[in-house]
Amino acid sequence: xxxxxxxxxxxxxxxxxxxxxxxxxxxxxxxxxxxxxxxxxxxxxxxxxxxxxxxxxxxxxxxxxxxxxxxxxxxxxxxxxxxxxxxxxxxxxxxxxxxxxxxxxxxxxxxxxxxxxxxxxxxxxxxxxxxxxxxxxxxxxxxxxxxxxxxxxxxxxxxxxxxxxxxxxxxxxxxxxxxxxxxxxxxxxxxxxxxxxxxxxxxxxxxxxxxxxxxxxxxxxxxxxxxxxxxxxxxxxxxxxxxxxxxxxxxxxxxxxxxxxxxxx
Length: 265
Hints:
This protein is of the alpha/beta class. The protein has 2 domains: 5-194, Vaccinia Virus protein VP39 (Rossmann fold, 3-Layer(aba) Sandwich), CATH 3.40.50.150; 204-259, rRNA adenine dimethylase, C-terminal domain (Helicase, Ruva Protein, domain 3, Orthogonal Bundle), CATH 1.10.8. It has 10 helices and 9 strands. It has helices at 22-32, 49-57, 75-81, 95-98, 119-127, 142-149, 157-163, 204-215, 228-233, 247-259; strands at residues 18-19, 39-43, 64-69, 88-92, 108-113, 135-141, 166-174, 179-180, 187-194. The strands form 2 sheets. The protein has a 7-stranded mixed β-sheet, sandwiched between helices. A two-stranded antiparallel sheet has the order 1-8.
């Protein structure tokens, strides 16, 4: 199927950039590793390039898919394309409102080429879902994807937050000329795989606040954010910078502070 993206003018306010290379779409679907019984959520269905490949996969794999799209211009096109697919549901919605309410007892997988300007809020929302997905495959800005995949000694607030709950892999680049309209930066493919050992009882609001406290001054030593006594008791060198701790050490420090009545807000 050929997708005539020229018929539609990209909505700059929504950060729309359409993927042009069908081979990249195939790679994203392959990385998602959809199996029978899965539930797949696509973020930003757009003109249906990824959605079509999900639909094709339904010919030999029994799964359910939700194609989310906020731009009302695309909804009639998407509905017409997939009218015969009884397990593919097109939803006109804001992903930041839809994901927090979604629940399923089946294995959940998420796919999407994200608007670069809203990558962080969407990833935060995915981590906070009632049912955390098994696999997430996203197209993001190259620099953001690489940063999310880094760990100590180059940790960041967002990489620590996400890696506490997911194994993160930066799969590869997507040159900017593979999008229309062409953005000012290259894209990249990010693969998140749910950690089997991730704590499901964590108060994410408190953990976020704790990490924000730790990374508020990322170039300064940790003893500027926490007392030397608390750091030493947790086995952490107070002269280290926040970027020197990986997600497991940050989470262990969070648990230590909780257990010692730090009063985390």
